[in-house]
Design goal:
This protein has about 400 residues and is α/β, with parallel strands linked by helices. The chain is built from 17 helices and 10 strands.
């Protein structure tokens, strides 16, 4: 995800540049000022608490800011990125933002600061006061706001400078020139940091159900080679025609087919926070293939989750599924079910050993309800994240 904090003193032109950045990069816009003014206009509890503070040019308490930011962020978990305007304004808020983005398995890409001399800022804001109708656009409040910026907000620069994410931008000049400089910096800075999880387990372990849940809950893109192949078969494509005999027998399709489908899925999701790979890799060769695909993206497997299930339970589940409308061709006979389980034992278990050696292996008990298994998996996801950041 491309996450940007647009920084700068009052009157620096953040609002104008935000509109242009949103259009170019297709981001979700979060302006604490706009949200707070909306709360005030709607006379909500948060609005009433914030109204008096804003009217004096002060900073709204973090307790209020956290509530409105988290609400907005969680409503847009499928966005390709977020543009924060007017947040964070303090070092405490910078830490808050780190935590909020961590929940989405992402982080701030950069903080862009529009640099404008104080005299120019005063002139701009007094000019705006003539038409804005905002109660906080008067000389006395403007001075307070600028002093607040100097005292509380500038230390945020040091916070992001230490992380090498702070970039000052000349905020004086034409709107077009300033925008061009912003885009140049963004394009040279943005490096996707993917969170990638491989989900394995015996046939019948519930990988499909759990993979989709994990993807939805963790802002990731779900990639199931089986699901992609079934779509190709249903559409009668050339790939589908080649894959159908393998799928009917419950066998692994040729690797070149899986590679094409995975590459296509990744290419169609350029702003993804990461991917859940279900059913791939199923062989040690495919494990090397996936490593190669991810290295091309300057990424790697973050964690491998194995859903542990007894062979007897797997046979029972597959046999039961064969009696429903969710049945697969390879669920219709016990011979085919046994063939799939034998193939798993022979070809997929070495993949588990491969990831164990990389210290990215996590295993959960696959017995119980969907909710119980999902809870265990989500706990493992948290452990993977902690390991990555530790």
């Amino acid at each position: 995800m491309l996450n940007i904090a647009l920084f700068g003193p009052p009157g620096a032109g953040k609002g104008t540049q935000s509109k242009l950045l949103l259009e170019k990069y297709n981001l979700t816009y979060i302006s604490t000022g706009d949200i707070l003014r909306e709360e005030i206009a709607n006379d909500t509890q948060l609005g009433r608490e914030a109204k008096d503070i804003i009217g004096r040019g002060g900073l709204v308490p973090d307790e209020i800011i956290v509530q409105i930011i988290e609400k907005k962020v969680t409503m847009n978990i499928n966005t390709g990125g977020i543009l924060f305007d007017g947040f964070p304004r303090t070092v405490v808020q910078a830490y808050i933002l780190e935590g909020l983005l961590l929940k989405m398995n992402t982080s701030l890409t950069c903080m862009l600061s529009l640099e404008v001399p104080k005299d120019e800022l005063m002139s701009r804001m007094l000019e705006r006061a003539k038409t804005s109708g905002r109660s906080d656009d008067n000389l006395e409040v403007i001075k307070v706001r600028l002093q607040e910026y100097e005292n509380k907000t500038k230390p945020v620069i040091d916070f992001y400078q230490e992380k090498e994410k702070y970039f000052p931008i000349n905020g004086v000049g034409s709107v077009e020139d300033i925008f061009k400089n912003l885009c140049h910096t963004i394009d040279n800075t943005f490096k996707q940091d993917y969170f990638n999880v491989v989900l394995l387990g015996k046939p019948g372990s519930g990988k499909g159900t759990q993979g989709e849940l994990l993807a939805r809950n963790n802002n990731l893109v779900y990639i199931s080679t089986g699901k992609l192949l079934r779509k190709e078969i249903a559409n009668g494509t050339e790939i589908g025609k080649i894959a159908k005999p393998y799928m009917d027998r419950g066998e692994i399709v040729p690797d070149e087919i899986a590679i094409k489908l995975i590459e296509r899925k990744i290419e169609h999701n350029p702003t993804a926070a990461g991917f859940i790979f279900k059913g791939f890799p199923r062989t040690i060769v495919q494990a090397y293939i996936l490593d190669g695909l991810l290295r091309r993206m300057n990424s790697r497997v973050s964690g491998m989750l194995n859903i542990k299930l007894t062979t007897l339970e797997a046979m029972k589940r597959l046999n039961d599924r064969g009696k429903t409308d969710r049945k697969r061709p390879y669920d219709l006979s016990m011979d085919m079910i046994l063939n799939r389980l034998e193939e798993y034992e022979k070809k997929t278990k070495p993949v588990i050993d491969y990831y164990k050696k990389q210290s990215v292996f996590f295993e959960v008990d696959g017995a119980g309800t969907e909710e119980e298994v999902n809870k265990r998996l989500e706990e493992s996801v948290k452990l993977i994240i902690a390991q990555l950041r530790g």
